[in-house]
Structures are given as structure tokens and as C-alpha cells.
Amino acid sequence: MLTTTGYLLLLFTLVPLISSEPIKCSDTARNFKEQSFVLQCPAGCATEYYSVWGSDIYTEDSSICAAATHAGIIPQSGGSVTVEKRVGQSKYTGTTRNGVTSQSYSWYPTSYVFASASTVTCSHQARAFAENQFKVLCPADCTSQSSSVWGTDIYTDDSSICRAAIHAGKIRDSGGIVEVLKRPGQSSYSASQRFGVSSRSWGSWSNSFIVI
């Protein structure tokens, strides 16, 4: 188990690889040239007025973070989102959801949606997400990686999500989408070997997760 200093060093090492790009509440999808990208929304985007047009599929000039809150992808405290651009729609329907009111609009040439899962690496940990429940897309070949896993079926939140998911039997080594649910800390975590992944035992740890 990593010490606080060791964890911080590991986090700084991983951030360039796995972190999403931080943006402002006012940023829109047309600020980005890529067709698919991962972003980190700040808190408070639902409490101020930022224009959003549509429901579930949004005009490209809609606020990404306000739309993500509207769609229920992130809570009002912010979080990571995966944006995928789409062709324009003939109309966009406004609704009120999760404290955000979107507006209706007619034809607009470009749109975007939120992917159901954020793409991560084999080393990404549950503690990197602010949300209590979220989905991630794990890559292939995580059994060959050295990222640590502590526990069996319920894991410490500094365990590798994707390797824990393989260990729990939720995905194969070919990768896939998994849903993570955070849990309170446990007094102990037991070790076991499953599906090519060896987990370690540990004592008391403050936060945990399971893979649904």
C-alpha cells in the first residue's frame, strides 16, 4: 500500500496519461477540433446561467459542463465527461433536468452527445473520480500491467479499476465498459488470485469500491 508521499508521486506521474483536460463552465464543444475528447468539468456549472440547447443531444455551441449536468452525466460538483461530436439535428428540444434548463432550437449544423463511459488506462484508480458512481472503458491487456489491486470483490479506492474489474470477473483481458460504485472503507481487505490478476491483502482503508 502506498504512503501519502508515494501516492502523490504516483499521481503526478499518471496525470499526463490519464487525466482529462480541465475546462471552464462556459466552454463549448466547438472549442475543440477532435471528434471525441475527455474533459474535466469544475463545480458550480449548474448554479450560473450557461446556454444549453437540446436534451441528450446538444448543439455544438452549448456549454459542455452545464449540458453534462443537465444530462445527468456529472453531479453539480463537477466531474469527468467524454464528448462525442455528431451531425446536426433538425430540431433540439429544451427541458429542465438536474437544476439546469435547456432551450429548444431549430436546425443547427453540428451537435454533440456524452459517451456512456470515460476512457481510462489500466492504472487509473477509483479515487481519481469525484462521482460515487460512474462508468469507464477499460483497454485490453491490463492483466500484463503491474498496477496494484487490494481486496477481493470490494477494493481499496487506490486500486486499479480495470485490473480489479478483471479480478472480479466483470470483464475479460480484452477490455470493456465497467460501472464503478464507491463504498465506505473496510476494516480489512483479503488477497486472492483470479483471472490472471493477483490482489493483495490490506488492513483498514478509508474508501472502497465495487465493480457492478
Automatic annotation (TrEMBL):
Keywords: Signal. Residues 19-112, 116-209 form the LCCL domain. Coiled coil: none annotated. Residues 1-20 form the signal peptide. The keyword Signal applies. The keyword Signal applies. Pfam families: LCCL (PF03815). This is CRLD1 protein. It comes from Polyodon spathula. The lineage of its organism: Eukaryota, Metazoa, Chordata, Craniata, Vertebrata. The gene is Crispld1_1.
